[in-house]
Task: structure prediction
Amino acid sequence: MAAALAAAAGLAAIFAVHARAVSNAPTPPPHAARVNPTALVPQPIWEVEQRSGSTVYSNGLEIRNEFETTSRPRSYHTFSRVRLERSAEAFSAPAGIVFHTTESLLLPIDPAETRDLMRTREDLIRHVRTGMLYNFIIDRFGQAFRIVPEDEVAFHAGHSIWSDRDRVYNGLNESFIGVAFETQTGEALEAAQIRSGRLLVDYLRGRYAIEEANCVTHAQVSVNPENMRIGFHTDWAASFPFEQFGLHPGYSAAVSSVALFGFSYDSEFLAAIGGQPWPGLIAAEESIRREASDRGEDAGAYRRELRENYRLVRSITSGVDADRKIREMQ
Ligand SMILES: [Zn+2]
Result:
């Protein structure tokens, strides 16, 4: 019952957000449909053609497959957000997307550089393929490469945690798809990368029913369990163009590692995100203070309890991982 109420409250919150977004939109011209493009659920998108080395989809997305390799199937449990109970079921479908930068060598986009651009791209893809580092890479020309199939694990997220309105995901390699853009922190994406990135995001969200709330950047989900700070990896700590991928501004989402598990951040992280905490970081800190006050507890003591919850979730997850490894060896 509590879960149903929480879900209903979550839905109400979503509708409220959408309603606000619509009411803030510029007044449309007469007869134009009043549509907020970021609120649209992607239409069905399906595979229409297999070519040698690539697959073409109904929205115009073309995924090149010639560097595809194989890892192992996804298998993960989630935790309920309210009581942190582990799901009885092990899931195998991806639940979200983590966006990355490759931080690799960037040459000028110039016809005279074409040969070297192709060479650096191929070096990068071979490196990523060897380590099975991402499910997808989008190169400087906007070509999308599938490296690890989306129903298999790529090793892109390290220690990482996120939650949607119902469930907590720990260790996002298992549960989220890794999409890397060939770029470096501080560089703007090429227009071609934004175009094909949008097609890929729409396809993945439609195919796997991925909620907008679970489309996040590596900096938003990366944690360091040793010092209980967030942002061990800081790619896309700022300037990820969420709206151009049909997503609400993601930096507004309350940071799960802080709000639910009491992680904190340091001045180095603050510098990486541009000196000002994301609205989602402020919201997460505020929720700790509010919850502590509602319980009549000191915020510091409450944060320590949250950190114990993280240790619990982490130890359960490692137990499950160890069991899986034993099964795989048998
Ligand atoms: Zn990353």
Observations:
- The two ends are 41 Å apart (CA to CA).
